[in-house]
């Protein structure tokens, strides 16, 4: 009777170990056969905008250099000029060139922000800022890719646009690394950017 129990116990143990091996193999297969990661770290949606030099700019172009990316519009009275000023100050404080850290401005107001308008606006701040614009549909695509909200408020040509004010941090692999809140504490923002650039 005791021998029978020992035999049963051995069989149960062998079955359990076999199950452990099967689970381990399955987990490894899922890891190695998983689809490749998309460049964006938010929801993986693709997008295509036009840069101020007339070239197409897609999610693939986020690779290569760490970037600070934010959404706004040239008629913005407060958030956008403040953020542009902040990005210039952060790069200056950390002694970073545009080759170390890109700043990318995406307009959420393609109706008024023509290429000429956007070019003139950004040149007044920092000539190295990359400006992106697109059609209404393309703008919705990139907003969706980053989970950005914007809505037009008011009628006529004097309308304003409410929009997400966070700065998105993108690493040199093109992956989302977090955000910097509007008017976040300067030292906190600088520490985040240092980590982003250092990888």
UniProtKB/TrEMBL annotation:
Keywords: Copper, Disulfide bond, Membrane, Metal-binding, Transmembrane, Transmembrane helix
Keyword Endoplasmic reticulum: no
Pfam families named in the record: SCO1-SenC (PF02630)
Organism domain of life: Bacteria
Keyword Mitochondrion attached: no
Matches recorded under SUPFAM superfamilies: Thioredoxin-like
Gene3D superfamilies, alphabetized: Glutaredoxin
Disulphides: 76-80
Thioredoxin domain location: 38-199
InterPro entries (alphabetical): SCO1/SenC, Thioredoxin-like_sf, Thioredoxin_domain
Residue stretches spanning the membrane: 12-33
Chain segments annotated as coiled-coil in the UniProt record: none
Binding site for Cu cation: 76, 80, 163
GO MF entries: metal ion binding
PANTHER family named in the record: ELECTRON TRANSPORT PROTIN SCO1/SENC FAMILY MEMBER, LINALOOL DEHYDRATASE_ISOMERASE DOMAIN-CONTAINING PROTEIN
Protein family according to the UniProt entry: Belongs to the SCO1/2 family.
Name of this chain's protein: Electron transporter SenC
Lineage, uppermost ranks: Bacteria, Pseudomonadati, Pseudomonadota, Alphaproteobacteria, Hyphomicrobiales
